[in-house]
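Escalated from tier 1: phenylalanine holo job.
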Amino acid sequence: MLEHGSDVFALMPVVRPTFIIQPATPVMALSTFLTELDSLSAEAAEAFASAADQSTLEAARVQFVGAKSGRLKAVQKGLGAVDKTDRPAAGKRFNEVKQSIEAAYQSAVERLTAVGRPTACRCADPTIPGACRRLGRLHPITQTIDELKEIMGRLGFTAVDGPEVEDEWHNFVALNIPADHPARNPLENFYVGDAAKPQAVENASQPRDPSPQPLLLLRSQTSTVQIRTMERMRPPVRIISCGRVYRPDTADATHFPMFHQMEGLLVDRGVTMADLKSTLRLFARSAFADDVHIRFRPSFFPFTEPSVEVDMSWADGWIEMGGAGMVDPNVLDAVGYDPEEYSGFAFGLGIERICARRHGIADIRELFKNDVRFLHQF
Ligand code: PHE
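Tier 2 regenerated the structure:
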């Protein structure tokens, strides 16, 4: 029995207390940390993007990136619990997510401050020079044709058109151009089809070729329209025809395989060369200048007799403008006009030359390049 008051512990072995040192926080697996980061990142991005006003955005900012109790801060604290070996990877990922959350916040700030601020296109600044719209315009050849029609219209000539693909009757035969004439050489024309076919019609005094399939070609002159007009109407005839014609010429500054002519035709009783010359002079004065001169040089065309070359000049020398003459009796015959009763004059002028002369164009090839820098000048 132990005495009262004795130290009961005195006999007991001294047991030193053992302290187990627990880590401050439990170890967190890297994958858990990353999952947490990812969901935080997604939720923050969603909250910032959907914030409809400043106060919602501010609340989201405090919730996710608030300095004291923001969720990002909380996740950052968890970084210390990640195993040391995984910590660099976790830290790297943490920084990336932090940056992307901050960027999402910034873009939400910009989005909400832009609302309510007038955007550049909504407010008109009258001091800014206006955007100049470039309007299209008519080709200089078309402009010239319009003016020629206008001038000749005032002289009583009606504008008519004819086909560009012609038969030999209208392009040659009725115009008194016989089968052996060099102008009918296949190499001088753009025949459509078989140009080697023998010709049935020799000259205009013979009846029209009854062949069911006449040879066709791209018309080489607008004189075809003389025939087409006289075939369908009786004198008095007073017409012009402006349009494209085709010849296999090598292109140079004054030639092109396609070009434009203005054909004129006047048939009535008692028409003379004096009418032709005064008509052309009146035309030239209107088209160019008051002091323009007209010169006729003797020439030959199968469909006019006599025939002339027409030159015009003002200021610096003569320019060849085309051909003209009194309509050949054979031509009047071919269309059923009585050459004893009627006479007429015809002329054909090159429209490119008129256009080039009026605008100072040195090379007609420019007209067909379709370069808007050139065309815009007219
Ligand atoms: N057709 C002729 C040519 O193309 C021009 C011309 C027309 C000549 C009318 C006389 C009469 O060259």
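The chain has eleven helices and ten strands.
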